[in-house]
Please model this.
Amino acid sequence: MILKGKTAVVTGSNSGIGLGVAEELARAGADLVINSFTDRAEDHALAADIAARHGVTVRYIAADMSKGDDCRRLIEQAGACDILVNNAGIQHVAPIEGFPVAKWDAIIAINLSSAFHTTAVALPMMRAAGWGRVVNIASAHGLTASPFKSAYVAAKHGIVGVTKVTALECAGQGITANAICPGYVLTPLVEAQIPDQMKTHGMDRETVIREVMLERQPSRQFATVEQIGGTAVYLCSDAAAQVTGTTISVDGGWTAL
Ligand code: NAD
Model:
């Protein structure tokens, strides 16, 4: 229970990687604030379920990470934030000349600007406590590019930059900031792409996963949400106290190519 007594706020955590990270932080003893913009009964039930299974306190706070004021209110309402995981993210795929402007704006707001807003409110809390961890969920696309993902690649490169600046501004204060760069992780975001890819390529599910989706991931295996969560727990541990301003790839070798 290395995180007992710490409070973690995980943005976009009613699904996928955010939920996996929240689960692993709770398993390590952290109290949690989980978030999405949906505010459904099942979001509150999910908080109660995590709390019951791990014996920690879990609150669900609705906030729309596309809105700066909501991002700031989320951290204020949390009241404590020892660990901040900026995870909320969306994707849209289109060539630059046809990329919808509204999608560009939404991706930059949710995948990048939200972390600026939450971090701005969380850092004074961390400084007051003399301890803090900022864990930004970037992507292999924070380090490399793919065609048709201009907004996503720009936002993910941007968050790697913000991570470095956060680390420098907090150096020597007991606060670290790092970015996890996952390759493909089988989450609802990725699962939703499979039927289209099967149609486009005329392939069955297994072939499309192996030959198309994981084509750039040399292991040809998805990373799991538990592995991303475990990496976040490591970054919150004492062993990682001098790990700051860097990226950790969990990508089956993608960025080694
Ligand atoms: P997901 O769709 O399963 O989860 C996205 C989460 O973000 C959900 O909890 C959703 O509620 C939340 N969210 C979306 N818009 C929001 C908003 N406006 N306000 C608040 N919450 C919002 O996707 P995922 O695959 O788990 O992605 C999570 C993060 O991991 C994203 O930043 C994504 O870019 C990153 N990532 C994913 C993969 C992958 O292969 N799945 C790889 C690299 C990086």
User: Anything to note?
Assistant: The first helix runs from residue 16 to 27. Residues 12-18, 35-37, 64-66, 87-90, 110-111, 137, 139, 182, 184-185, 187-190 surround nicotinamide-adenine-dinucleotide (CB under 6 Å). The first strand starts at residue 7 and ends at 10. The chain has two domains: 7-185+223-250, 186-222.
